[in-house]
Amino acid sequence: MAKPSSANGRTRSHVQIFIVVGMCCFFYILGAWQRSGFGKGDSIALEITKKGADCNVVPNLSFDSHHGGEVSKIDEFESKSKVFEPCDARYIDYTPCQDQRRAMTFPRENMNYRERHCPPEEEKLHCMIPAPKGYVTPFPWPKSHDYVPYANAPYKSLTVEKAIQNWIQYEGNVFRFPGGGTQFPQGADRYIDQLASVIPIKDGTVRTALDTGCGVASWGAYLWSRNVIAMSFAPRDSHEAQVQFALERGVPAVIGVLGTIKLPYPSAAFDMAHCSRCLIPWGANDGMYMMEVDRVLRPGGYWVLSGPPINWKINYKAWQRPKEDLEEEQRKIEETAKLLCWEKKSENSEIAIWQKTLDTESCRSRQEESSVKFCESTDANDVWYKKMEVCVTPSPKVSGDYKPFPERLYAIPPRIASGSVPGVSVETYQEDNKKWKKHVNAYKKINRLLDTGRYRNIMDMNAGLGSFAAAIQSSKLWVMNVVPTIAEKSTLGVIYERGLIGIYHDWCEGFSTYPRTYDLIHSDSLFSLYKDK
What we know:
The chain is α/β, with parallel strands linked by helices. The chain has helices spanning 40-51, 100-103, 157-161, 188-196, 218-223, 242-248, 288-296, 312-319, 323-339, 360-369, 414-417, 426-446, 467-471, 492-497, 526-529; strands at 16-21, 24-29, 147-149, 169-171, 174-176, 208-212, 229-234, 253-255, 270-276, 297-306, 342-348, 351-356, 457-460, 478-484, 501-505, 520-524.
């Protein structure tokens, strides 16, 4: 971990971790081999760790062991702390499961080589990832929306390759993000205004969005001010550091690609999905990629496609592509959209917008008459490393309406109201909310910087029903809610119904992100979940 230049703002050189043990919180600070230069929040956490947290702030706490078995005598030699040396400098941006060298050994068909390919046991690193030379404290939000220190992600290729498209500019010792994109060189705000003339973005109906092939995530960054939170993803490819730039800006993003395996999100999760010149061949593979978007898009949700082949009759010369190819590509897209019961709401300039039907029963009847192949899996949320198929995922049968955000945050989620999550009742959900409100209040008494902008990118490693994220909800931060693939209950769909975002992940593997991208990590009941795994 490199020494930050300042104790102000937020710093990821010492990431704070809340670990809930029993019902008491402890703070841990990562960065054992850094000796100085940490911020006020880190010193608070260190002091609390030394003294022991005041657990009286949450009454009725149990400190009994939750694991049976005889307690054996601890060997003094074995109990000594293990020291992890720093890795070689070439590993400053190492991403274990998206390593560039390993990727090149896999097939390129359908972007297989850009998917997750984790190292075997003998290739795993057991050292601390170093920061790049000159690494400094990231700018606090909202300054980070527009500026990233050059030293933190020292890659200039996009400033040249995307210069005329206003993606990113290099100015002195910082990168500036003007808000442009390949499809919106005039700025993301103006582009979003166009979408909002068709899609109900202003009233909270649309809260969660999926940006496929996000670039530097300017679309997601500018949606934030409209109270829409986007899960952006892009592969680790020749466009170096796209997702790294997004996270340095304080915008939710992961490394990912639409390839051969299903997206790590639940069915009927997003209110809107978006592709702006994302280079995904939507008409290929018998519409398989559109079917995967349909799986993760909730009934009534919107799909936005801007750029080729939309309105090809006018644009084919500017795109320098044969009009016959573009015509065939759009024909296939329109055909698949009709099959999925998506209604086209608008086609203007290079932007087309479809809406997924709310009438799932009549859609199912029409699809059956058309001999559509339905996916055979009994669990549409069982997606971890599962292959994508050319089939339609039936929408989940749930009761209750989606409330507009922020009312949605504490309304009863439809999946809970309909009893779709075994073992979780309305009462269970309400009690969980009360518990985490109490815990977050306790956290804020221990660390008074929680809602100051000091921590922007937050992760909950075992999110449950998303109640920690709901309790800490603020315009100054966002939470990546992770539901482990081995969790007893599949609750990620509930988290999205609350207007929050998250992802499935197996913590036996590396997470799909770059080093140094989270400010605070929260964990509850994770070690017990993975005990003996």
